[in-house]
Amino acid sequence: MKIEEYLKTLPESIMTGEDVDLHDDTVRQILEFASVGKDDTFYHLGCGNGHSLQIALSEFGVKKAVGVDYNEERAASAMRIIGEKRASDCTIRCENILDSDLSDATVVLFWFSDYSILEKMIERFSVLKKGCRIVTLWGPLPGTLPDRVEFPYVLNTVPFRKAPSLREQAMAVFGTDCIDFVTAWEFAERYSKAVASKDADHDRFLTILQTLTIWINAKNLGIACGDEIPMPIRNYLGILKTYFNIEMEHLLDQNSP
What we know:
alpha/beta; Rossmann fold; seven-stranded mixed β-sheet; 9 strands
């Protein structure tokens, strides 16, 4: 089956990140990356267990932390945890992020992959106060150039800088105009570690998929090193097809540079 068909077989909650709680150490890295401090009002959209809010308050001293999650069960669980911690400067809202008031935010952690949501949220983010930082994982907000990158963490600052093209956006994210297999694997592995599960085999599989995705996108955008498909890329394409019945070769643009 084609990779698109395989992805459709996965639970929607996994694809959107709804049921994936970031590890506490990953949250700390994100908050350090965004230079979060005592003058900030921190929002986590899709806050899950609410641990990110506690860390922002107790370790980074933010003046206010707000979590938004439309899943009633998860929001209730986060509320209980926050209540036990007696965090008076922390709020959990059980509501759709498209309807939530973000007007006082200075830092927003936003990890969604649904493009229709991304497009709507860009409009909402763009009217936030000047200097507000939006932190995403894997890629910047669509159509924008990142202001800072420590892959897989990406930061956009209001007002957003428009990306002249997908090629220039990719170059800004990866910090190079030539992506080879080693670079693709390194960046994919960073992402896998940031969202690591308890299953090492799952993480390895994710790294392979992401490596191929990074390299194929680079090839199609004309920023892959060399004209030939590297042997490791050929090998992993073959492994996916032979052992997992997943085909990705069709993603390669035959007219790419």
